[in-house]
Amino acid sequence: MPSSLLEFIGHFHPLLVHLPIGILLMGLLMQWLSQNEKYRPVQQAIPMVFLCGTITALLSAVTGYLLSLTEDYDGKLVNWHMGMGIGVVVISSLLYAKERNIRLAMDKKLLSIGLLLLILITGHLGGSLTHGSDYLTDPLTRIIYSDSTGIATIKPVPNVQEALVYRDVIRPILQTNCFACHSARKQKGGLRMDDSLMLMKGGKDGKVIEPNHADDSEMIRRLLLPVDHDDHMPPKEKPQPTESQIDLIHWWISQGAGFTKRVKQLGQTDKIKPILLALQQVSLIAKMPTDIPEEAVVKADETAMGQLKQRGVLVLPIAANSNYLMANFVTDTVINKEDLQLLLALKKQLVWLKMGFTNVSNEQMAVIGQLTNLTRLSLEHTSVSDDGLKPLQSIQNLHYLNLVDTKVTKAGVLQLSGLKSLHSLFLYQTTINQADWATLKEAFPKTQIDIGGYTVPTEVSDTTEVKVKRS
Amino acid sequence: MTQKELHNQRLVKEAQETIMGKQTRRHFLKESAMGLGALALGSLVGGCGTKSSPGTLFDPAHPLLPKLPPFPGRAKSVIYLHMAGAPSQLELFDYKPELIKMDGQACPPSLLEGKRFAFIRGIPMMLGPQAKFAQHGDSRAWVSDRMPHLSTIVDELSFLRAVSTDQFNHAPAQLMVHTGSPRLGRPSLGSWVTYGLGTENQNLPGFVVLTSGGHNPDAGKSVWGSGFLPSVYQGVQCRSEGDPVLFMKDPAGMDRDLRKASIDAINEVNQQEYAVYQDPEILSRISQYEMAFKMQIAGPEVMNINDEPQYIHDMYGTKPGKACFANNVLLARRLVEKGVRFVQLFDWGWDSHGSNVIEALEVGFINKCRSVDKCITALILDLKQRGLLEETLVVWGGEFGRTPMQENRDGRKAPFKGRDHHTEAFTMWMAGGGIKKGASYGETDEIGYHAISGKVEPFDIQATILNQLGFDHEQFTYPFQGRPFRLTDTRGKVITDIIG
Question: Domain boundaries in chain B?
């Protein structure tokens, strides 16, 4: 028989296996029930059930054997699964014989318990083969270690130069991108990558890594092929490694593809240095705004938040994973005492406050000055003047202050020179002009001060059109 | 049968017909779901009777209320400037001196083998850059003299110089850029964003679309459609000439209170409908009526660019009262300033094939450049001086690039200089919203044909935009047809090299 036909038959295994499991368990259940007087009549059917179970178990075993020839599974696990499966066939046929009252020197109860155990173990091993040995327990471990994502993530390396190249840098990349198909549970293309010896040995088409010759290595070649190419790895529909991860693997192979050295022991090109350094950071997308306090904060007072929302003020956490809040008066431009009192109740959590285009007054600014955790404050297009700025001296964490189109003057802004964290200051459409720039820059050496007033000159070409040149 | 009996029979029949008429298709399906085939039919009307479907962020009664992103985003709003028709990167940003030398020579066969072009047939001639290039700013970015104003602010921008796509016709390529699929039916970027984040100003739409250049984009309104997301998230197209939204003013003889009373009455009827059919789209409709009422106050104020001071009009080069891109750009800034989440601008007319004056690189293209250069420069500077650029992401680009070869449609020499559609490499740029200033990512080969490093595709740009708004594009999904869908499908990598 041609091998592809055998493979086709083998592929029926996952379908067939469920029949003997169900039928034989049913047989065992009927056996147990029939001990009860009420269910005695069931006994008649038991031999038939076991016969069916035995036949489907035999078919499963045969197809399973064919499947094991064609797919690349972990050999040890497959052998155990096969042995147990054959055990199921044998014991179920013995039970059938016993039920047909054929004389056998064996205890029926012992056989039944044995069959039950065998079915459970064989089934579990089969599941481990297809879904991976940690499939069943994985959600449990996640509960225990309180990690809800279930996605293998690459953890940052504390000191990358001291880290082991393979264990700390390369292996985590392979683990997240390759192990699903090339490790203990599955070895597609005969390639197993979770073991250093097997990784160097390669797959059924030969070596995948040529130490010191990254560009000649099959692994690099396949990683760099266009995603749509048939040979591209990982396959198109699977998550793809990032460009810097590929650079790291390339670098590791070109440096000899060793398993014991530390990062500092290998030659480092200018290209790889920043990539290595980036490994020390928390994650790929770690470029978060810097204007959120690092320390955690307790949840904000729900009633105060609710009341503000009732009043038309937009209050909400800055992100799903944070208790810090932002507030925005975009649709409630009339600010009164109650609004401010409610903001004060959220003092600890409130970091971003937008009061642009509102009627906020200098007197009310005294309350804003008490919101000492603010990092961003927008007051554009309000009548706030120098007196209103004074209370802001106490907001030491202020990063961003927008005073566009307010009544502030240079003297008023200079009151704030003690704010060391101030990163951006916007003074467009105020009395402050370019002549004040030098004085302000001196007072705020680290702040980006934008006085605005930019123009874009109108050239002749901006208002005319080119016409066809007639020759 | 007596006359009276006949009459009664007719009455009963009429009553029955009325009842049957009320059994709408939706109602029929809902009723059927109780009986046989409950599983299949039940899922068809699964939306009915639930306040919000499980696994979604959709709250039908308040669909546009602001929501929090999964992690704190750098950008709060997006202004996306799409040059529909695909502007030539080789006349704007991708300087290729080698191509000057090859001008007029036959295209090497290696560039044509196995390739398909929209119009090029046989062996075309190479076409050198039709503009003068120079490096600008501290970032030494190459920009041609077609964009004299933009070249003064290159240090605010991040260039993506090796963007590629796999669609060489306008409509599918535009869909690809905006919906992540070349086929119809997927939600657009702006819809995903307003679905995920809502909008800050409840008196204005969250996703506004403005078009210029005389035509809608080739892919039609699907590029701002909501696809399988609830329809409330589709882009609201505003007119760029006259009143941006029609019927914003109360009609003569109808005052505000009467208007309110009529909307309350309509909503009352809709509430009753909802009580019967439990269709969440009815709640959306109620909230839309309420928004329309509120927009009547907020809308005219925000949408009217005439109350901007003269120096701002001079800066943008607007033409008040006329339909033009510059007006739309200024309006975009006003909308973002008032808390609109996503403003999508389409400017039509960048399809420089060289087959007529408008499509000529030496005529029409120059005029297109002149109509966008000044106002885009003004937009960046204006957002900057207002302290808005930090949290407003500006994206500029087309749907693909243009070939280094001159187009020879139907094997004939074109009357004007022009280039065909090119998918392998083109230039886009982003600014603000936490994007690096003065960066450049990606490189093309010496004639600008292929990307040789830093190649990105539309999925990567979508992933980056979502990232700047506080989303992990791989986790941001919507359940539809039994599986979670995401904007970037199975692809997309955040372009970390341009994130500041």
Answer: 3-44, 77-252+286-498
Question: Choosing among B424, B496, B499, which should be mutated to test the A contact, i.e. which has the most A CBs within 10 A?
Answer: B496
Q: Does residue A278 surpass a pLDDT of 80?
A: no
Check: CB of residue A429 under 8 Å from CB of residue A407: no
Question: Which residue carries 């796999």 as its tokens?
Answer: B166
What ipTM is given for this predicted complex?
A: 0.83
Residues of A in contact with B434 (CB under 8 A): 287, 289
Distance (Å) from the alpha carbon of A279 to chain B's nearest alpha carbon: 13
Rounded to a whole number of angstroms, the distance from the CA of A462 to the nearest CA of chain B is 6
Reference A249, options A281, A210, A292, A280; nearest CA is: A210
Q: Given A314, A321, A451, which is nearest B71 (Cβ)?
A: A321
- B385 near A CB under 8 A: yes
pLDDT tens, residue by residue, B72-124: 889 999 999 999 999 999 999 999 999 999 999 999 999 998 888 889 988 99
Tell me what pLDDT residue B43 has.
43
The Cα–Cα gap between B287 and B289 comes to: 5
Give the pLDDT score at A146.
Answer: 45
Q: In this structure, what DSSP letter does residue A168 have? A: I
Residues A199 and A325 reside in one and the same domain = no
Give CA–CA dist B472/B461, Å, rounded: 13
pTM here is 0.70
Residue A169 has a pLDDT of 87
**Contact status of A329 with chain B (Cβ, < 8 Å):** no
| pLDDT tens-place string over residues A210-223 | 999 988 999 999 99
Residue B410: per-residue pLDDT: 81
* CATH code 3.40.720.10 for B77-252+286-498: yes
Largest CA distance in chain B: 102
**Do residues B333 and A432 lie in contact, with contact meaning Cβ atoms separated by under 8 Å?**
no
Task: Say which CATH number the domain at A323 has.
Answer: 3.80.10.10
Domain that holds residue A413: 302-450
Phi (first) and psi of residue A185, to 5 degrees: -80, -30
Residue B124, Ramachandran bin (φ over 0: left; ψ between -120 and 50: alpha; else beta): beta
CB B375 within 8 A of CB B325: yes
A197 touches chain B (CB under 8 A): no
Considering its fold, how many domains does chain A have in total? 3
By the 8 A CB rule, do A331 and B206 touch? no
Cβ contact (<8 Å) for B491 and A240? Answer: yes
